[in-house]
């Protein structure tokens, strides 16, 4: 068994602190020292484990994953700092996967949204629009994500998006209407446009013109925070249970 020096006050042996001076010299003891003093064993330190934080899961694609940015510059990481600064004890889970569609979000829902998830932010659909996928499938997938989140007892926030101009005016108008329609039907908060104030601005996007740069990601975080903050404050307070 190894002993660890603790800085002059004792040794840690087998997890116990042996305090005081043991008076050991070589392998023996002088006969004139009197009765041998037994070392005083301090009780083991009590370790306290912090309770796990409630989770906010952001289901998204490359916009959420922070494509082209350092991880701590993605908008979910910026939201974590805002929550910490506001004294709201949540863990933000960045469940963004580059290239993911709304269908992909449905497929990975169960392993993305687990534990004490209080809030689910659904930020999917951009790749559906870029690929021109059928809008009835987008609506069905978003509906499934909302209902499955609610079934887990989580609050849901839906992040609206605008379809790319290449999709055509009819497709784009119908695309955007889906988010408003679902938010109204399920009575859930809507972020009108995740990329509001960022999309189409070269100085706020990377060279591909699609993914926000650091400054753009900060604005995306602000767009989300405006809707997230009141929901996070409400969800942080347990709802009183009716007395039997």
UniProtKB/TrEMBL annotation:
SUPFAM superfamilies cross-referenced by the UniProt entry: SGNH hydrolase
One Pfam entry name: Lipase_GDSL_2
Domain SGNH hydrolase-type esterase: 58-218
Gene3D superfamilies named in the record: SGNH hydrolase
Name of the protein this chain belongs to: Arylesterase
């Amino acid at each position: 068994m190894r002993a660890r020096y603790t800085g002059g006050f004792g040794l840690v042996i087998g997890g116990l602190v042996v305090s005081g001076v043991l008076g050991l010299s070589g392998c023996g003891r002088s006969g004139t020292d009197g009765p041998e003093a037994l070392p005083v064993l301090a009780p083991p330190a009590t370790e306290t484990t912090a309770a796990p934080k409630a989770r906010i899961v952001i289901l998204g694609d490359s916009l959420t994953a922070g494509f082209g940015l350092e991880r701590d510059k993605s908008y979910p990481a910026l939201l974590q700092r805002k929550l910490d600064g506001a004294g709201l004890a949540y863990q933000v889970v960045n469940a963004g996967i580059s290239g993911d569609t709304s269908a992909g979000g449905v497929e990975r829902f169960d392993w993305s949204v687990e534990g004490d998830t209080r809030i689910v932010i659904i930020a999917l659909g951009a790749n559906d629009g870029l690929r021109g996928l059928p809008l009835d499938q987008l609506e069905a997938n978003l509906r499934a994500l909302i209902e499955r989140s609610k079934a887990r007892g989580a609050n849901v926030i839906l992040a609206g998006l605008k379809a790319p101009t290449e999709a055509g005016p009819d497709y784009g108008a119908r695309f955007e209407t889906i988010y408003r329609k679902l938010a109204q039907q399920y009575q859930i908060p809507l972020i009108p446009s995740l990329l509001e104030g960022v999309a189409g601005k070269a100085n706020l996007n990377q060279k591909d013109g699609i993914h926000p740069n650091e400054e753009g990601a900060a604005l995306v975080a602000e767009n989300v925070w405006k809707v997230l903050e009141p929901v996070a404050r409400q969800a942080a307070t347990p709802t009183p249970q009716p007395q039997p």
